[in-house]
Design a protein that fits this description.
By secondary structure, the chain is mainly α. It is 55% helix and 0% strand.
């Protein structure tokens, strides 16, 4: 779901035995909390400016 693997929700659901609904809910909760999760199958060159900014900020804080 997230970089660097960027696996699909369906694949991750099967691999980890977690329902897709749960994964989508977790992704939504993370976005609301301000975590940069593009998650719409776009490559980084198609991310919004806000998502790019959040990734930079998250990286700098580590």
């Amino acid at each position: 779901m997230m970089s660097p693997q960027n696996e699909s929700v369906a694949k991750l659901s099967k691999e980890e035995d977690i329902t897709e609904v749960t994964l989508y809910n977790w992704r939504k909760e993370s976005r609301v909390a301000g975590v940069a999760i593009p998650g719409n199958n776009k490559t980084s060159d198609k991310w919004s400016s806000q998502d790019k900014f959040l990734i930079v900020m998250e990286t700098r804080l580590r």
